[in-house]
Amino acid sequence: MLLDVVDQVCRHCAPLVVVAPGGEALWLAAAEVAAADARVRKLQERAAGVRSWDGYAQVLWEAARHRDAAVRARLEPWTADSVFGAGARQLLGAWGGVLEWSEAALAAWRAAAPAAREATSVSRACDAVAADGQVRQAGLQLAAAVVDRPRWAAEPFDAWAVVRRAWSSARDRGVGAAQARTAAMQALEARWGDARVRDVTALPEPAAVPADGFASPAQWADAEFQHRWQRYVMECCDRLEQALHTAVSGDPVAGRKLLLVTGWPLVRPQDAELAYLAQYEQHGPTVPFGGRRSGYGWEPDHAVVLAVPRFAARHAAEHTRDHPGRIVVGPDLHAGGLRSRTCCRCCAAPTPTLRWMPSAMARVRSPRLW
Fold first, then answer.
1. Which one, of 289, 306, 261, lies nearest residue 370 by Cα?
2. Closest to 55 measured CA to CA, from 66, 45, 65, 67
3. Cβ atoms within 10 A of the Cβ of 92, count?
4. pTM of the entire structure?
5. Which of 67, 61, 104 is nearest to 271 (CA)?
6. Cα–Cα nearest to 74, from 133, 13, 129, 33
7. Are 233 and 227 in contact, with CB atoms under 8 Å apart?
8. Digits of tens for pLDDT over the chain (370 positions)?
9. In terms of C-beta density within 10 A (0-12 exposed, 13-18 middle, 19 or more buried), how is residue 159 classed?
10. By CB neighbour count within 10 A (0-12 exposed, 13-18 middle, 19+ buried), where does 324 fall?
11. For the chain, how big is the Rg over CA atoms in Å?
12. Are 326 and 263 a contacting pair, CB within 8 Å?
């Protein structure tokens, strides 16, 4: 009965509903079941769309598994109660069904998403092209010609970041070179399609568009800029495709390693090339670790330990080498050598492998606001 009415009580009226402690536990658990059910339905509605790893990182963070312990702890004390026992048992069954449904939806997403080796190769190609800094500098030079940065923006518009994100997202979805180029072109066109030149001297020399046939220098400058940024996208994509063909897939040695990841969950735009890590098994709890900007405020940041293949650990460390402490590679993970919770129930002591997590976090700089 609670499942039928819990979503009909608004947040203003809910505090006015007075119930017994057992009824309150059932009511709150029913709200958890209804919310989890709604999230899974929304997840399944997205099933027809693109299964990307950055999308998976977001749905994983909202998955029912993270509320499992809290929901069971709320309901289990009431399962033997003469008044609330039947309702508690019914809600436990409903929660178990939603949890199973949620895990099945996550598994289907993982199966349909690109292979991790493909994601790391795409990311390595992007890092290789960006290494010399020329592509970013060329994009900043073009941005200086149109001066389209808002007054409140702390940094100039980074055309390379836009091209990189669009191209890598397309390639991660398994599309071809032509479609990835189109995606990058459309992404930059959304910003510069109607841009007007404000500083002609910032345009590269020599000019690529003849000045004949234009009614004014301003018209010529706008045409020159449009030609320049489109050629910039094509040159970036050509370099990215070449780098992708030569990118090393990763460490061919079998086995897994522990990986400490801060800045969890991997849902920010700058985390797109690390989001594939979300598919791997997490060991131990999710630990608060610093904070991140969210709109006009701040929200908690977290750290986790994952068990990942060697090639993924190698890629993650290389990709974040300019951000010390973001990724910390841990010891090898041997078969049967890790239990994610405790050694035994009597002592509840963490396994030696999991003791590495706090020691690794201690080596990382103190939590900071990313």
1. 289
2. 45
3. 19
4. 0.74
5. 61
6. 33
7. no
8. 555 555 566 767 766 666 678 888 888 899 899 999 999 988 887 766 667 888 899 889 999 999 999 999 999 999 998 988 999 999 999 999 999 999 999 999 888 888 888 888 899 999 999 998 899 999 999 998 986 655 555 577 899 999 999 999 888 887 899 999 999 999 999 999 988 988 888 888 888 888 887 888 899 999 999 999 999 999 999 999 999 988 755 455 578 899 999 999 999 888 989 999 999 999 888 888 877 666 667 777 899 999 999 999 999 999 998 888 899 999 887 765 555 443 333 334 445 455 666 666 665 654 443 3
9. buried
10. exposed
11. 26
12. yes
Q: Which two tokens stand for residue 153?
A: 């923006």
- CB count, 10 Å around CB of 110? 15
CA 209 – CA 75 distance, rounded (Å): 72
Number of neighbours of residue 301 by Cβ within 10 angstroms? 19
Contact present, 339 and 283 (Cβ < 8 Å): no
284 contacts: CB under 8 Å, gap ≥ 6: 304, 305, 340, 341, 350, 354, 357
Residue 121 token pair: 């190769």
* Number of other residues whose CB lies within 10 A of the CB of residue 11: 6
